[in-house]
């Protein structure tokens, strides 16, 4: 089977404040999504990268994407929630992508994915019948609190992981999974796969592949991009 990538980039980035959607904010002199694109389109193991933008997107055409041209397709079919954008993108990809091909779904807002992490995902999840995702073991102590923020209990963190992206599953299985969970919108692809009764593999990553969510995260992302470990 071949590997393809899909970057859902139809979010508004409300938590960042500001007018410009998060995926287009300046990061090290480029729109943020450039960095995820460069990593995925730069891998010789990935045949093509599909970017899903909103039909109302007014920014994509402001940039010159020609360096990725032969291996980049833009789909203007973003939806209301991330899962809708991914589902619409998968449906549009079906012309080129076979049922058993792998699709790596990756956030535009994770610009610091390293080449080594990507390789590990392709190797380990690609050897699993279901597929898998990058994840990191939870490092902080976890508290459960009431509405007044008083601690009820300390939750054991053994066996708890934070899910990242890319998340990699077979095209047909992922599309079926996302159709099935239509009413309970999942926040990641793995959740939908789990709802089918499958058990995705966690591939050990590290926190440099964090999701840029708040304005200060841009500083950290720039530092990591300027000091790559690969
Ligand atoms: O908002 P959040 O950080 O969870 O978004 C994760 C990714 O999903 C981003 O790349 C964002 O652009 C994308 N997204 C989307 N369609 C939506 C909402 C988010 O493609 N309706």
Describe the 3D structure:
The protein has 6 helices and 11 strands. The protein has 230 residues and is an alpha/beta fold. The chain has one domain: Alpha-Beta Complex (Spore Coat Polysaccharide Biosynthesis Protein SpsA, Chain A), CATH 3.90.550. The strands form 3 sheets. It has a 7-stranded mixed β-sheet, with helices on both faces. A two-stranded antiparallel ribbon has the order 2-3. It has a two-stranded antiparallel sheet with strand order 8-9. α2 (82-93) packs across α4. The mean pLDDT is 95. It binds cytidine-5'-monophosphate. The site of cytidine-5'-monophosphate has 16 residues, from α2.
Summarize the structure.
This protein is α/β, with parallel strands linked by helices. It contains 6 helices and 11 strands.
SSE diagram, text form:
Layout: E1 3-8, E2 26-27, E3 30-31, H1 32-41, E4 46-52, E5 72-75, H2 82-93, E6 102-105, H3 115-126, E7 131-137, E8 142-145, E9 151-155, E10 161-170, H4 171-180, H5 189-195, E11 201-204, H6 217-226
Parallel strand pairs: 1-4, 1-6, 4-5, 7-11
Antiparallel strand pairs: 2-3, 6-10, 7-10, 8-9
Helix pairs in contact: 2-4, 4-5
Helical residues, percent: 25-40%
Q: Report the C-alpha radius of gyration, rounded.
A: 17 Å
Query: What number of structural domains do the residues give?
Result: 1
Bound molecules: cytidine-5'-monophosphate
Main sheet record: 7 strands, mixed
Please give the CATH architecture: Alpha-Beta Complex
């Amino acid at each position: 089977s071949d590997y393809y990538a899909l970057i859902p980039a139809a979010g508004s980035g409300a938590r960042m404040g500001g007018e410009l959607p998060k995926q287009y904010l300046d990061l090290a002199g480029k729109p943020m999504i450039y960095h995820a694109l460069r990593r995925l389109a730069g891998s010789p193991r990935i045949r093509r990268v599909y970017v899903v933008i909103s039909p109302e997107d007014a920014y994509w055409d402001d940039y010159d994407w020609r360096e990725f041209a032969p291996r980049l397709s833009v789909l203007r079919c973003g939806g209301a929630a991330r899962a809708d954008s991914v589902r619409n993108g998968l449906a549009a990809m079906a012309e080129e992508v076979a049922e058993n091909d792998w699709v790596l779904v990756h956030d535009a807002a994770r610009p610091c994915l390293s080449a080594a992490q990507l390789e590990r995902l392709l190797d380990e999840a690609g050897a699993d019948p279901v597929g898998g995702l990058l994840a990191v073991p939870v490092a902080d102590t976890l508290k459960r609190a009431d509405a007044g923020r008083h601690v009820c209990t300390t939750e054991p963190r053994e066996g708890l992981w934070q899910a990242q992206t890319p998340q990699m599953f077979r095209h047909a299985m992922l599309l079926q999974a996302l159709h099935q969970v239509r009413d309970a919108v999942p926040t990641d692809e793995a959740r939908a796969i789990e709802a089918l009764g499958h058990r995705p593999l966690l591939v050990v990553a590290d926190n440099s592949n964090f999701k840029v969510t708040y304005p200060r995260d841009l500083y950290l992302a720039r530092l990591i991009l300027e000091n790559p470990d690969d």
